[in-house]
C-alpha cells in the first residue's frame, strides 16, 4: 500500500486530534482550553504575542484573546518590554509553568499509551523519521 503526503499528513493530524481530545478533561481541570494550552506552552520560546501567532499559525486577534484569558487566570504576565516600549513581553508565572507542565505530562501520557502499541524499534525509527522531516533542507 502506497501512502502519499496528503494521506500521511491526515493520519498524523488525526493522531494529534485524538490525543488532544483524550486530554480535554485534564486540560479543563487545569483551567485551560486546547488553544490556551498551546499559547501557554509557547510563551517561553516566543515571548511576544506576534511571535506566538506566527509560531502557532493563529490570527493575532485570537492570540490576544487567549493571552487576555491566561493573564486573567494568573498563568502569564504581560509587561512592557524594556528594550522596546511599544511591545508587550509575556512571561510565565509559577502557576502558569505548573499548569503547562501538568498539561504536557497529560499529553505525554496519552501519547505514550499510543506509542505502546508499536515496538521499541519502531518508536526509534519513528523518532528518526520525524527528526529527518523537521531538519532544514540542504
**What is the count of DSSP helices, taking H or I runs of 4+ residues?**
7
Spatial strand sequence of the major β-sheet = 1-2
Write down the Rg: 17 Å
Give helix % range: 55-70%
| Total count of strands | 2
Structural class estimated from helices and strands: mainly alpha
**Low-pLDDT windows of residues:** none
Report how far apart the termini are.
Answer: 29 Å
Give the assembly state of these chains. single chain
Mean pLDDT comes to: 93
Summarize the structure.
With 138 residues, the protein is mostly helical. Helix content is 66%, strand content 11%.
What does this structure look like?
- The protein has a two-stranded antiparallel ribbon.
- With 138 residues, the chain is mostly helical.
- Helix content is 66%, strand content 11%.
Summarize the topology:
Blueprint (H helix, E strand, L loop, with lengths): L4 H18 L1 H6 L4 H9 L6 H8 L3 H13 L3 E6 L2 E9 L1 H22 L4 H15 L4
Antiparallel strand pairs: 1-2
Helix pairs in contact: 3-5, 4-5
Task: Give keywords.
mainly alpha; 7 helices; 138 residues; single chain; globular
Amino acid at each position: 500500500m502506497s501512502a502519499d503526503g496528503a494521506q500521511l499528513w491526515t493520519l498524523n493530524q488525526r493522531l494529534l486530534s485524538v490525543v488532544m481530545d483524550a486530554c480535554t478533561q485534564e486540560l479543563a481541570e487545569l483551567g485551560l482550553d486546547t488553544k490556551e494550552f498551546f499559547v501557554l506552552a509557547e510563551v517561553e520560546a516566543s515571548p511576544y504575542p506576534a511571535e506566538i501567532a506566527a509560531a502557532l499559525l493563529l490570527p493575532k486577534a485570537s492570540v490576544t484573546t487567549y493571552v487576555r484569558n491566561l493573564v486573567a487566570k494568573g498563568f502569564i504576565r504581560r509587561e512592557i518590554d524594556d528594550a522596546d516600549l511599544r511591545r508587550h513581553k509575556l512571561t510565565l508565572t509559577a502557576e502558569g509553568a505548573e499548569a503547562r507542565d501538568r498539561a504536557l505530562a497529560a499529553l505525554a501520557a496519552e501519547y505514550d499509551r499510543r506509542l505502546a502499541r508499536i515496538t521499541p524499534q519502531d518508536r526509534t525509527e519513528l523518532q528518526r523519521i520525524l527528526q529527518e522531516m523537521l531538519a532544514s533542507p540542504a
